[in-house]
Amino acid sequence: MKTYNIGIIGAGFMGHVHAYCWSAIPFFYKDAGFRCVLKGVCTSRQVSADAARDELGFTKAYDDDDALIADPQIDLVDIATPNSLHQPEILAAYRVGKPVYCDKPLTGNVEQALELEKAIPEPSRLGQMTLQYRFYPATQRAQQMISSGDLGDVISFRFEYLHSGNVAEGKRMNWKDLRSYGAGVLYDLGSHAIDLLTWMTGTTLQEVFAHQKTLHSWRPSAADPTKLALQDTDDMTVIVATLSNGALGTIEVSKIATGAQDELRFEVHGTRGALRFNLMQPNYLDYFDATDPEMPLGGKSGFKCIHCLQRYDAPAGFPGPKFSIGWLRGHLHCLYSFVHAVHTGMAFEPSIARGIELEKWLAKVAESAASSQPVTVQPLTK
């Protein structure tokens, strides 16, 4: 059986998520045809790298990402660092010919993404993005139904990804609040919402008109909570978007939605039907069929709850189709699809090229918000 030695750069929250998923593959995917071994982990300090190695079950610890990437014992490179660090790590992996699994967004800014596009002739073949919300049975079923015409022509949509973590004025700043790290809510949550919308509908963004809000410009510094630091990124972005098929709708991403937990939800309306989903109820996809009769007394009209749960295709057979799903399961299936593509030679999806495309779109949204004007979005030309 083929063995892939995994090297993860970054051992924070996402590094832990990815390490769990690599370790869980043999439990959830019977007869996958390969095995994955946690070989190396890298952080910015040797002491924290050693701690991550011992805690998570790696063999080696590094404080230099170039050393991990160059190590001949590492087969696949998993990038779970802050956004602004992704580009040099991707380029280093490209130079030694190692497939990359990269957290979103792809880079810290669109300039870095364009440099990658210029440096790498075929970015679609380099690796995969961590866009895990494509990888739930409910969202995959939604994409199938839209592409097969169950909704008819898509007319309108509402996509929201809501958190509440930045509501408290005294919350300490972290790297996701700082432009220098390529962060902010648009890039953190908006990358997911825009990817999911355009993937499900098979469209691109045509025009965006965006507004942004920062609730508390000054908050306790990450380095020293006794001092205040300037937050130079958004807490909330609202976008009116037109898709390439003419559909019109809204995208809202926020970390100041009081009461929200991890609320990714959408509605898609078509000429023949509609779909709706909420990540807080990830087992279900609601479907409205406009051809159902409304009479007598409502007939059979109304939204129908589709029981998606864990009804993945083989070899994803554990724990079974009837059992409730959770947040980590989307991450696991996204990561499995990456290593399965490596193992079989199939195309990566969503690829690094998709990450570049998303960066271009996010930059257009930021441009619109800065100018308070609608902006035409050019489709990816490569």
Report on this model:
By secondary structure, this protein is an alpha/beta fold. The protein folds into two domains: 2-132, Rossmann fold, CATH 3.40.50.720; 134-325 and 359-371, 2-Layer Sandwich (Dihydrodipicolinate Reductase, domain 2), CATH 3.30.360.10. It contains ten helices and 17 strands. It has helices spanning 13-28, 46-56, 65-70, 86-95, 110-119, 137-147, 185-188, 190-201, 327-344, 352-371, and strands at 2-9, 34-42, 60-62, 76-79, 100-103, 127-130, 154-162, 205-213, 218-220, 228-230, 236-243, 248-254, 263-270, 273-278, 284-289, 303-307, 375-376. The strands form three sheets. A nine-stranded mixed beta sheet has the order 16-15-14-13-7-12-11-8-17. α1 links the parallel β1 (2-9) and β2 (34-42). α1 packs across α9, α5 packs antiparallel against α10 and α6 (137-147) packs across α8. The longest helix has 20 residues, at 352-371. The radius of gyration is 21 Å and the shape is globular.
